[in-house]
Amino acid sequence: MASVAKHMRALRNKRQLTQEELGEKLFVTRQTVSNWETAKSQPDVETLEKIAAAL
Question: Do residues 37 and 5 make contact, with C-beta atoms less than 8 angstroms apart?
């Protein structure tokens, strides 16, 4: 899942979104986005679909 974390961060940065802004779009906290990007936790499949749509 580390590659998902790496791609998620890269796409977020490419879109010039902060973790806070992405979190607001997904209705999660900045800390949750940070945990996903550092592979400390993993989003579920439904949330992955939301992330893909947001990015």
Answer: yes
Structure tokens at 3: 């590659």
DSSP 18: -
Average pLDDT over residues 27-52: 96
User: Tokens at residue 28, please?
Assistant: 């999660």
Whole-prediction pTM: 0.89
Q: What is the mean pLDDT of residues 29-38?
A: 97
Half-sphere exposure of residue 12, counting CA atoms within 13 Å on the CB side?
22
DSSP state of 43: -
For residue 1, the model assigns a pLDDT of 55
Cα separation, 29 vs 32, in Å, equals: 5
Q: What does the angle CA 44 – CA 37 – CA 28 come to, to the nearest 5 degrees?
A: 55
